[in-house]
Structures are given as structure tokens and as C-alpha cells.
Amino acid sequence: MTIQAVPVPAPSTRRRARRIPVVPLLGGAALLAVLVCVVSGAALAPQDPTAQHPTLSVTGPGPGHPLGTDQLGRDVLSQLIAGARSAVIGPLAVAVGCVLIGVAAGMAAAYFGGVVDTVVNRFADLVYALPALLIAVVVVGVLGGGYWKTAAVLLVLTIPFEIRLCRSAAQVQVRQPYVDAARTLGLSPWRILFRHVLPNIVPTVLATFLLDFVGALISFAALSYLGLGVPAGTPDWGSMLAAGQQLITENPWLSIAPAVLIIITAASATLLGDWAHERLSRGGERA
Amino acid sequence: MPIVVFLLKRLFGVIVIVLVVSFLVFSLLALSPGSVVATLLGNRPSTPDLVAALKAKYHLNDPFLVQYWHWLVGVLHGDFGRSTQSGATVTSVIADHLPVTLEVAVYTLVLVVGIGIPAGMLAGIRWGSRFDKGVSALTVFGMSAPGFAVGIVLVYLLGVKVALFPVYGAGGSSPVDRIEHLTLPAIALAFGLIAIIVRQTRAATLNVMRQDYVTFARARGVSPTRILVRYALRNTALPIVTSAGLLLIVAISGAVLIETVFSLQGAGQLMVQSVTAKDVPVVQGLAIFIALFVVVVNLLVDAAALIIDPRTRVAARS
Hints:
- By secondary structure, chain A is mainly alpha-helical.
- Chain A is built from twelve helices and no strands.
- Helix content of chain A is 73%, strand content 0%.
- Chain B is mainly alpha-helical.
């Protein structure tokens, strides 16, 4: 019994590492497909997404139109593919901006403390206490704003979360002896932060990047569903939802397909973030 | 006494936040495109009398900070001005739209507490089981799927395909009709919230069930029901209550969209309509109202935490 029981832990972890992670793979594949649509844009679409066919107004799935047409006779599938660009690029920009600024500010707050730390924390408190999406609706709606202004508003509203998460991850690191050692060697604070602390908080950064992306994706879709943020006439998942809702009995795909796409993209990014965070932080513990 | 000091400090924080928000909200008027008078007139005809009245009411000839002060004094007296669309007072417009929102909110709360907490506790107790894995997978879905997208899928599946529930409006005055109409909106809104509360409850239960005192109670032969209610439920209450603030914020953002999806004439729909119509006084009133609501709920959550868990009282004292 004991001979069998003792070696159990080692092979079981090895087996777990070798097992194919089906769910994250599916999520990754879905995200990759969306990214292909983003890069190719309308080029991949089977038809011109803006071409109108008045005789084919709101038809269900049929030959040449696998998901049917909208009110102006435009092909739904082509619009979905072309709409990936405005649905994903803005959120990606928000997430990238968040990580770039959030990591630098979060690490600085953890390392230097003092005024930087207090200012960052009070701003985070304020944003935590208010519904960010609603602020975006008010600001973009009342003050007006194009696509990139919307992205800027969402960036400002998301950054406090990113800074806080990076700050708490970095705080654990800056107390470690290796940071003291680096300081003793006379390395500059920024060199310590970016060369030595940053690699240790990568799991957090990666997970927050995907979380920021999901949050911004949903916010962008919500705003364009309400008719804000994305200029009229641009194919976009959110505005397709709004247009398709009135025609849900004639061609349900017009609203269901973008809704499902938004859900799948967001869920895939969340799953991938969870998985990557777990993998990377577990790897860090082992090393 | 230190607890009173703690609560007073938090109250002071609340006042500061509301003041900051009110200043930002007031700035909307000056920042919105076009002249302030044009914004305040909205679609009403521009008569010299009306313009003069608006200038006098908003003190438009005074410096910005003086204007803010007069506006703030008015707000403290419940005067947010008049809607530029209907000409009715902002408070009456908001009051007209609140009932539907509150009905959906209560319905959603029942779903969230009735489904979320039991599911989370069960998943936490049967950690690693098939039920736990299924629930955890669903929460990832619920946390990332936006309510309005879920709402539209529900409209199609349960409203059009199976025609189980009505998909438009809030229904008549009879309670049965009302509940029938508000079921889909409440489910759509509850979807994401249940995911959050399941995660919190599951983590809290998991934590409690691993404590030595639970093992000891089991070893003593205390019945599983008693362990569940007296040990687990009581100790998981704190993290659940403290997550209420987060839930509220998600719920408010969600309600705005859900009301649009289901054409409910609630406060969220009012917000969207006022924003689209650039009806700034109504937007200001709603924004202040929501900010006040959120910070007051957060304050109550803090106070509730002090009541539920003696340990937080010790933390508040230091």
C-alpha cells in the first residue's frame, strides 16, 4: 500500500500537464477566428457588406446568404465579418493602453509609495464606487464623441482597476530580498522594476489584459447597441443587435448572430485569461 | 465609540464623493456642445421670456463656480430644473420612471439570492464534483456574457421560438401579467449577477469548510445540516454582503441596457433617452440620484459587515 501511495503525487501532476487543455484551446481557436476577421476585414466577407439589395429586404437564410439579409438587403454574414473590426480594435486598444500605463503606474505606486500611491488609490476608490458603463454612456452621449474618444473614456475608467491589481502584485515582489539585493548593487529603480519585478508579475498582467479586453468589448458593444460610439453606417456587432431586434421574427440571425459572437468572444477571452493565469502562476510557484 | 468614529469617517468620504460627482455632473451642462441656453431650451421655442427665465434660474451671467453653488443649493432642495423635452420637473420625470425599475430590481434580487447563494454553497461543499465543475463553467460564461446579448438570445428562444413569455413592455396592472412581462428582463439581468455571487459564495464556503473547527465539528458528530447552517452560512455571510456593492454597480449598468432591450419605461431607459435627446437636466438629476444610491448602499454594506462579523469591528477600531 505505502509503496503505491508514495509516488502518486509526482505522476499525477505530470499527467495533468500533458493532458490537452480542451476548453482553453477552443477559446483560443474562437479568438483566433475573430482576430482573422479583424485583420482581413471585409476582404474575407463572401459579399460586399455594404451592398444593398432592395429586393432582398429582411430574408431568412437562403442560397448566397447563409444568415439572410437585413432591412436594406445587405448580407448578414458579410456584415458580421466586417463588423469584427470595430467591435474588437477599440477594446484591444483600451486593453493595451491599460496595461502599458497600468503596469508602469502600479509598479511605481508599489515601489515608491507615498503621494503616487495615495493619488492612485483615491482615484480608484472613486471609479470603483460608480458604474463605469453608465459614466461612459453619459459622457459619450452628452458630450458627443467618435470611436477613439469612446476608447479614451473607457481607458480612463478602466485604468484604476489595472493599476490596483498591478500594484498589489508588485507590492508582494518589492518586499522580496532580491529587490533589496538589486538596490544594494546600485541599480536604478526603473531598471529594478522593469527588468526584475515585471517578469514576476507577468501572470497578473496577462490575466488583467484579457479582463480589460473583455470589459472594453462589452462596453463598446453596449454603447454601439445604444447608438453611441460607433458612427452610423459602420458595420458593427452592437449596432447590428439593435437593428436586428426589431426584425427578430423576420430574420432572427440578424440579432442572434452578433449576440452569440459577443458572448463567445468575451467568454473565450475570460477562459483563456483564467487558464493562462493559473498555468503561469503555478509554473512560477514550482520554479 | 471608535465604531461611531469609523462610520462618521466613511460618511465624510461619502459626502466628498457625492460633491465631486455633483461638480462633474454640473460641468456637463457647460461642456455639452452648443450654448448653455440652447441646451437648456431643448426643443422648446426660444422666446425672450423663457431665455431670460433660464438665465435667471441658472445664474448664467455669474462666474462658473457661483453658477455651481446656486445649482447645488437648488439640488439640495430637490430642484434639478425642468426636462428640456417635456418641461416637467426632473424629480417628477424620475419618479414616473422609478416603479418599473424597482420591480425589475426586486425580481432580480429574488432570483440572485434564491439561486446564486444555494448554488454557490453547494458547489463549495461538493468541491471538485461534477456539479461544482458545471457551476464554475457557467459562472465564467455568466461573468463574461453581457446581459443585453443574453437578453436578446432569451427574447428569441423563450419569446419568439417558444413564445413562453411576452418580450415587450412591462405589462398591465395585474400582478400576474406584470410578473410574466418582467420574467425575461429579470433573468437577463440576474444572469451576470448570479455568476458573481456564486463565485463569492463558493470561495467563501470552500474556505469555511477547510477550517479546523468544521473538521472538529464533523468529528464530534454534528449533523451536516447544522454545520451548514450554523457554521458555513453564518461565516459565508460576510463575503456575500460585502460583494453587494459590486453587484449593485453591475446591476445598474445592466439595467440601463436590459430596459432598452425589453422596452421597459424605467429609469435606465429614461437615462438613455435623455442622453440621446441631450436633455441635460434629467441626465444630471439621474446621475446624482444614482451616485447617491450607490454610495449609500456601500455605506450600509459597511455597517452590515460590522453587525454580522465581530472581527470587522476589531479591524475598524484599529
